[in-house]
């Protein structure tokens, strides 16, 4: 899974009742991750891509 700085990511909830989380890639540390993501609530975290992560390409 490839993402670049500025791309949006969505991490889908893995259990019933768990909400999806969205954020923006602010740093890519490799061609296939991990990525530093700033989530919509302002929290930043190192994210390793997995089957529950979807990348939405930036149009800019």
UniProtKB/TrEMBL annotation:
InterPro entries: DUF1918
Domain DUF1918: 1-55
Record organism: Cellulomonas humilata
Pfam families reported for this sequence: DUF1918
UniProt name for this protein: DUF1918 domain-containing protein
């Amino acid at each position: 899974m490839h993402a670049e700085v500025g791309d949006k990511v969505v991490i889908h909830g893995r259990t019933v009742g768990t909400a999806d989380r969205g954020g923006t890639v602010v740093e890519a540390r490799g061609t296939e991750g991990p990525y530093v993501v700033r989530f919509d609530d302002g929290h930043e975290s190192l994210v390793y891509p997995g089957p529950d992560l979807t990348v939405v390409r930036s149009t800019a």
